[in-house]
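Reader question, answered in our methods column.
A reader sent in the components of a multi-part assembly and asked whether the whole thing could be modeled at once rather than chain by chain. We filled in our standard form and ran it. Here is what they sent:
COMPLEX SIZE: two components
ENTRIES:
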Amino acid sequence: MTDDEIRKEQEIIERSKKDVKAFGEIYEKYFDRIFNFIYRQTGDEDIAGDLSSQTFINVLNNLPRYEFRGFAFSAWLYKIASNEVRKHYRKSKTKQVFSIEELKVRELVEQADDGWDEETVQRLLNYMNDLPTDMLQVLELRFFEDKDFKEIAFILEMTESGAKMRTYRALDKLRQNFNLKIRYNG
Amino acid sequence: MGKHEIRLRRQRMTARGADRFRNFGAVMERHEQEMRIKKIIRVFTLFAVILILVMLIIIVMRVEKKQGQKKSSVTTFALVKNHREPFLYKTDLH
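And here is the structure of the entire assembly that came back:
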């Protein structure tokens, strides 16, 4: 997002603080992204729909308190969405689901020597199952949502260095265990 | 078993799935409803706080009044006692 885009978005937010109807533009812009973000963490369309709506209601309720902190408004949206997901799992007491698109994994992982087969996919899934949940959350935001570490730190309420460390550790293990080239250079 | 479950999706995510839930009107309505409830709760809390304060003031005033009454009766008793003692002392001398 360019500085000009961030500034324009900020103008809409300021307008929305006075007239909530102006927020419609932001809602239309981000609804799909927030829905997909929640869907990836729940694997259920109905739950994702409910949590997305709740996210935007919370955003509207707290909009007067929003202050620009140097990054895009979407970071705040993701933070609220992430809290909604956390609240959902705390209430339902079920295992957190990470529903990942195979295509996205293929984009991330570039084959080195071996071919991409079912066994590798299964091994990769097992490996990801063993990763700590917070590490998966960081990976998801970094690779599927294209967030930078500063934003990830803000969304997941951790330090920037903590977010970086989690990513590098996960990727290092991935490189070692799967003999794969990863299209990622930090 | 870990704390999470990884599911691999073969199909790509489309906007159609999200469209079913996209409804800014409903979100606005819920927001206004929640704001109304928040306002009612705020007014009710303010009223409750004022009521508690008034009750506390009344209780404190009553306690002070009672203590004042007790003090004045003790003082009267002391005055009467102090007045009689010299008189009795004098009669004893004779």
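What stands out: The two ends of chain A are 18 Å apart (CA to CA). Chain A has a mean pLDDT of 85.
Send us your own complexes using the same form.
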